[in-house]
Write a structure and sequence with these properties.
heterodimer, A: 244 residues, two-stranded antiparallel sheet, 66% helix, globular, B: 163 residues, mainly alpha, rod-shaped
Chain lengths: 244, 163
């Protein structure tokens, strides 16, 4: 298979316009374009479908309210009343990842959530924010998060490093989970798409049918990963409030 | 793998920061408050409707209670009236029956008196006839002239035997 037909070619970043800022390359790329589309879709949809004048919502407004209630419920289930303050952030995060994944499902569209640097940045924001929140809420006591009560004392030298490592690997697991899911799904789609073209006669319909089914699965995964990202963020916020 | 090529890392991070910050601020300040007001408004409306429905239900229950009270009252009143009417009717009937009885008794006694009277008259007539017949017969058979008084005396003495 030639390099230009590689299933990973879809993840390549092409600058649309080259911009440089104090020596750094901040070109507006196809990835940035996908982010812009995502943000536009979310803001326009959530603003235009919601009519504050009427009591009975339109069908589109129901979707917006459904999303709102979904995340509000998620936050109140995991964090409780404290969670209301973080609702805009968790909601933005969920919508950004969800619509980013969905925009990526459009053929020939770029999937920015398949880039580890993007997902890692999002996860890092969550990780740093939650850590700061933990210190703000508990001060130096936040370190007791790594101390598991009710364990024999001689186990602590082993358990505390494990806890620290698991805490520090949170942003990695959070970002790699999303990145790897998107990467794998889109690569698989591309591989099967190349089968459709390369297989002789009408046999190409079989991988085509598989792609159709896989697209459905990918849409499910797109939602699921956004959900997982949001619920893990909620759980981390909860940890920052209730140490153990 | 293009993901690991650091050439566009800064660009990716920069535009991510720009767009995500914009999205966050926009949703936080514009979209979410709008949805929240809509939901709150609807909840208020629902609560309002529910409370007014509850109020109406209470009113309806009160009215129903009043209606039932009135029905019960009306029933009691009707029962009393029926009893009263029955009583007066019974009194009427008994008084009429007693007056009827009296009338009948009077009529019976009158009739008995009449019968007795007519019986007496008949007996007198019979006696007179007997006297006449006796007078005639005696006059024809014998030459004895009997006075009416004598005949009557005889008849009076034999009266019991004829009966």
């Amino acid at each position: 298979m030639a390099a230009k037909d590689s299933p990973l070619k879809q993840f390549e970043i092409d600058p649309i316009s080259n911009i440089e800022l104090v020596g750094y390359n901040i070109s507006f790329t196809n990835s940035s374009f996908a982010m812009m589309i995502t943000v536009l879709v979310i803001t326009l949809f959530l603003t235009l479908t919601v009519n504050t004048k009427t009591i009975i919502p339109s069908r589109m407004q129901l979707i917006s309210e459904l999303m709102y209630n979904f995340i509000a419920q998620l936050l109140s289930d995991t964090v409780g009343d404290n969670g209301k303050r973080y609702f805009p952030f968790v909601f933005s995060l969920f919508m950004f990842v969800l619509i980013g994944n969905m925009v990526g499902m459009i053929p020939y569209q770029f999937t920015f959530t398949s880039h580890i640097i993007v997902t890692f940045a999002l996860a890092a924001v969550v990780f740093i924010g939650v850590t700061i929140l933990g210190f703000v809420n508990h001060g130096i006591k936040f370190f007791s998060f790594f101390y598991i009560p009710g364990v024999p004392f001689y186990m602590h030298p082993l358990l505390i490093p494990i806890e620290v490592i698991s805490y520090l690997s949170r942003p990695i697991s959070l970002s790699v989970r999303l990145f790897a899911n998107m990467l794998a799904g889109h690569t698989l789609l591309k591989v099967f798409a190349s089968f459709v073209v390369s297989m002789p006669f009408f046999t190409g319909v079989f991988p085509l049918a598989f792609i159709v089914a896989l697209t459905g699965l990918e849409i499910l995964i797109a939602f699921l990963q956004a959900y997982v990202f949001a619920i893990l963020t909620c759980l981390y916020i909860n940890d920052a409030y209730h140490l153990h | 793998m293009p993901q690991l090529n650091p050439e566009f890392f800064v660009s990716q991070l920069f535009w991510l920061a720009v767009f995500f910050t914009f999205l966050f601020v926009f949703l936080w300040r514009v979209s979410l408050p709008r949805i929240a007001t809509v939901l709150e408004k609807r909840q208020n409306k629902i609560d309002e409707n529910l409370s007014s429905a509850k109020e109406l239900q209470e009113q309806a229950m009160e009215i129903e209670k009043k209606i039932n009270d009135q029905i019960n009252k009306a029933k009691l009143e009707t029962d009393e009236k029926i009893k009263e009417t029955i009583n007066t009717l019974q009194e009427d009937v008994s008084s009429q029956l007693s007056s009827l009885d009296k009338d009948l008794e009077k009529k019976v006694s009158d009739a008995e008196k009449e019968i007795l009277k007519s019986k007496d008259n008949q007996m007198k007539n019979i006696n007179n006839e007997i006297a006449k017949i006796t007078k005639l017969t005696v006059g024809k058979i014998t030459d004895i002239k009997l006075s009416d008084n004598e005949i009557n005396k005889v008849i009076e003495t034999h009266k019991g035997n004829f009966n």
